[in-house]
Amino acid sequence: MNHFSSKFSKAGLPVPEQVLIIDTETTDLEHKQGQVVEIGAILYSVKHQTTIQQFSTVLRANSNPTEHFNRINPEALSEIKVKQAAWGVSIVTAMAEQGDFIVAHNAKFHKNWFGSFENGSSALPLLLNSQGKPLSWLCTDEDFCWPRQTKYGRSLISLAIAHDIAVFEPHRALSQCQLIADLFNRMENLQAMFEKALRPKALFRALVDYKDREQAKCVGFKWIPDRKSWERKMAIEDVKELPFPVELIALCNDWPMPQQQLK
After folding, report:
1. 185 phi and psi, to 5 degrees?
2. CA 247 → CA 208, 229, 236, 242, 254, distances in Å?
3. Nearest-CA neighbor of 139 among 123, 122, 152?
4. Mean pLDDT of 72-80
5. pLDDT per residue over 20-48, tens digit each?
6. How many CB atoms neighbour CB 21 within 10 A?
7. CA-to-CA distance for 146 and 144, rounded, in angstroms?
8. How does strand 222-224 pair with strand 50-58?
9. Structural domains in the chain plus CATH codes
């Protein structure tokens, strides 16, 4: 039904030896309105399937309207010195230099907080590799296929529980990173999972009418109100498995991919 995959190379990028697992706790869902109050990071060896380093730091903030969610005391945040926060961020950037990719659950959300804008009193820089180039991000929700995944778009906690992983402090940054590391630890062939995660991807629109919308939802397509369409970022190679036709919206440029154009 769909023939997009034949027009692109199926080869992805080499499997990384080490990745940086990242999670953030924030005061708002919008990065232009809120700020990061905690960063968690784990340097993880894909090659040896084990954690190498782990670190977390809270950042200075005058308030924490999401305290009920992340349970981070706002008084502690307000007493963090600028120098302390800067040191914490420097540790995370140093860990990033040892990684080949960044991995996060809902990577698009976490990636938005790293850039040139000010994060309260602490600037969050882009995370760079050892050559000084921005690291590409992989999403444990969108890019990986999990053996006990019953449906797409599951929360990290739901994924962990499905794989018999105990959940502690569910809304602290480092504990979220540890859940991802624990998931990686339990995979029988982690390198093969990364090979699939690194295949060329694109954003597609499901060509379904109202009565067939559940078909799109069941395979991970999300309703985008602004465009009034069901959309999903997915591996181009997998499009042929969908039970309905799709329309290509855009190639994903998170990392280098083939430049052939659709005919």
Report:
1. -60, -30
2. 11, 11, 11, 12, 20
3. 152
4. 94
5. 999 999 998 887 788 899 999 999 999 99
6. 28
7. 6
8. unpaired
9. 4-12+200-251 (no CATH), 18-196 (3.30.420.10)
